Amino acid sequence: MLGIPRKYVHQVFGILQSGLTSGLVSASASAPLVAPGSFLGHWLGAWLLSWLMMVPVVVFAAPGIRRLADFLTRD
Length: 75
Known about the structure:
Blueprint lengths: L8 H22 L8 H34 L3
Helix pairs in contact: 1-2
């Protein structure tokens, strides 16, 4: 365990979620390169770029999206 304080749970969740999401999306975008044998290098570059782009979106947009979802739904 890293022992990150609980008050940072939202940021940790966002980093983990954006890493998983960007990894899956960049893998699907790189899938046509499996046959030529350049999948791994292309995927790693695409994943790193997409993760760096998604971390701020997920961390900063999630609270607003959560509030909008709460507004649009009811108990």
